[in-house]
Specification:
Blueprint lengths: L2 H8 L15 H6 L5 E5 L3 H11 L4 E5 L2 H9 L6 E4 L8 H11 L7 E5 L5 H8 L4 E4 L4 H13 L9
Parallel strand pairs: 1-2, 1-3, 3-4, 4-5
Helix pairs in contact: 1-5, 4-5, 5-6
Length: 163
């Protein structure tokens, strides 16, 4: 089975949203939290923990160990404000995950920052071609990563009242 076929199956939302109240959408469910929500997709357990500890005071943080687990989480109706994405992971790697969400329609506008040890690989360039906002190489400087996250949130379009 091709990775895009897997993504299409996972992104079948017909059953994912059955439990939501008719007036609720995934966006309104998440919007009830005042903190921005970051999804960390990283197969290294220690790095997942470190990123979560580093970011959880300022943001709501969810982490998943690979792209497959993250796609499943998204299919349950969860929509983060930002994704931190590793490239080299088992089952569904970072580039395949990024291609899937960019082709999904539903998740295509979620900002993605790639964190990887493969700074000069063709895969890195492809991630930027698929709309990743930034690349942060491992080992990373925490201040630089936080700067990239802040830049991503500042670049969001904020709806304004028209009068």
């Amino acid at each position: 089975m091709h990775v895009f076929d897997i993504g299409k199956q996972i992104l079948s939302f017909r059953t994912a949203f059955q439990g939501l109240d008719k007036k609720q959408t995934p966006q309104t469910v998440i919007a009830t939290t005042s903190k921005k929500h970051i999804l960390i997709i990283e197969d290294n357990k220690n790095l997942r923990w470190l990123l979560g500890a580093m970011l959880s005071k300022q943001y709501q943080v969810t982490s998943r160990k690979d792209g497959w687990a993250a796609m499943t989480w998204l299919a349950e109706g969860n929509i983060p404000d930002l994704i931190l994405l590793d490239l080299q992971m088992p089952r569904l790697g970072g580039l395949a995950f990024l291609k899937n969400i960019r082709n999904s329609g539903f998740f295509r506008d979620i900002p993605v920052i790639v964190i990887s040890g493969q700074e000069n690989s063709p895969e890195t360039a492809q991630c930027l071609d698929y709309g990743a906002l930034a690349f942060v190489s491992k080992p990373f400087n925490p201040a630089r990563l936080k700067q990239k996250i802040n830049e991503a949130f500042r670049s969001e379009v904020t709806p304004t009242a028209q009068g």
